[in-house]
Write a structure and sequence with these properties.
Elements (H helix, E strand, L loop, with lengths): L2 H7 L9 E5 L6 E6 L1 H19 L6 E5 L3 H13 L5 E5 L3 H15 L2 E6 L2 H7 L2 E4 L18 E4 L7 H6 L2 E4 L2 H4 L6 H7 L10 E2 H6 L12 E4 L4 H17 L16 H4 L7
Parallel strand pairs: 3-4, 3-6, 4-5, 6-7, 7-10, 8-9, 8-10
Antiparallel strand pairs: 1-2
């Protein structure tokens, strides 16, 4: 059992945990310490939601999710916020029970059709206009030969997709190539190490898309791919916004409240609704 699986299955905790300390930019004095687990999950979902505006096909109606953990929840929430026309999502997980629990919760939260695909991996791939991977897999669970044209694949890291998929993609976007190409454990880092991809293989960064320096999908027939492993800078920016929002609305910390990590997931993710 991996360390990530042990956290989940033995202790009932997210596989990633974090604490964020904010300092005043002028005085450098600490002004806030907050749980970073929820912020990081929201941030990762939000980046995919932003990318989808530029990379998803205009006809997108369905999402195929790989992984029924907290990360895919924020992924689906952000995708639905970014692309309101989405109607259906299929979630694949090795645990049928976890997939069904995920589907029931997100159906209620998002008012869209969410179904557990159980162990039907290929059906999940074939169903999605958008595919999202958020698992602990160390071997590819999506292969380039299985992907049809016109799909947007949002890869969140690890070795979840094979090299063929990335090489087949008409558009490759990454959050920060200089960081990610050295992050061993991820498909693209292995490709860079082995000389199978270099700087010329990256079409744009996420910031390039948002700033309008480069374009995303050119047409609905293209296979598009993003790798958003994540940047700590995003977490700090969102934490600063949370702090500002709390100050503006007179929200005081409550020392008696349990950590978000200890709360039921359905409650924990309610915060996503607030600006």
């Amino acid at each position: 059992m991996s360390a990530a699986q042990r956290l989940d299955e033995v202790f009932g905790l997210p596989r990633g945990s974090a604490v964020i300390a904010l300092n005043d930019p002028e005085t450098k004095v600490p002004i806030a310490i907050m749980d970073g687990t929820l912020i990081s999950a929201i941030r990762t979902g939000a980046v995919t939601g932003v990318c989808a505006k530029y990379m998803a096909p205009s006809r997108s109606k369905t999402v195929g999710l790989f992984g029924a953990g907290p990360q895919c929840k924020t992924q689906l929430m952000a995708l639905k916020a970014s692309l309101p026309q989405l109607e259906k999502a299929y979630v694949y997980d090795l645990s049928r029970e976890r997939a069904e629990k995920f589907a029931a919760e997100m159906l209620q939260k998002l008012n869209m059709d969410v179904q557990a695909a159980a162990s039907d991996r290929l059906a999940t791939i074939e169903s999605g206009d958008i595919l999202v991977t958020a698992t602990t897999a160390t071997e590819p669970i999506i292969h380039g030969a299985e992907i049809k044209k016109g799909v947007y694949v949002a890869h969140l890291g690890n070795n979840e997709v094979d090299e063929e998929l990335i090489l087949r993609a008409d558009k490759v976007v990454i959050d920060d190539w200089e960081t990610d190409k050295h992050r061993m454990g991820d498909t693209m880092a292995y490709m860079f190490r082995d000389g199978k991809i270099d700087d010329s293989g990256i079409d744009a960064s996420v910031s390039d898309l948002v700033a309008g320096r480069k374009s995303g999908r050119g047409n609905d027939d293209q296979l598009t791919y993003t790798c958003n492993v994540g940047l700590g800078l995003y977490d700090v920016a969102i934490a600063a916004r949370v702090y500002q929002y709390a100050k503006e609305n007179g929200i005081e910390p409550d020392a008696t409240s349990p950590s978000p990590c200890a709360e039921p997931e359905a409650t924990r993710y309610q915060f996503c609704r607030h600006p």
